[in-house]
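Suppose a colleague, Dr. K., hands you the sequence of a protein chain of 145 amino acids and asks what its three-dimensional shape might be. Before reaching for any lab equipment, you can write down a predicted structure in token form. Begin with the sequence itself:
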Amino acid sequence: MHTKKKIVIATAALLAIGAGTAFAYWSTTGAGTGNGTTAASNGTIVLHASFGPGITPGGNKEVSFTADNAGTSSLRVGTVHTVVTASNGCDASWFSVADVVQDQTIAAGAPGVALTNKGSLVFADSADNQDGCKNATITLTLTSN
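The predicted structure, expressed as tokens, is then:
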């Protein structure tokens, strides 16, 4: 039994020594980088314009603007620029809409947001016969920056 006791003590001593064993390591410093990319674009704003019917030579109509943002982040409408075209042989150069500064942010996923500032469609009163503009369709093509 005495030998058995020695074996138990020796085993306990080895366990105690093993429990205190440390692992060696090197200390150092570290550095690194990580990167990814952002979207090239989040789409574009779709602009709409509306004005009342019945504009005549020498007259003008208020133009309202709205914007749709189908994207996933907010987009900004800067200045709205308008190009006028006309049907029925109506001379589109008789019509004008001055650029309209908006500087308005349109939230992601927002449809039909009214833009704050209005424009004015002007129909110049020319010395030429403007009958070609009777019942013409006036189209406003919009861009913004």
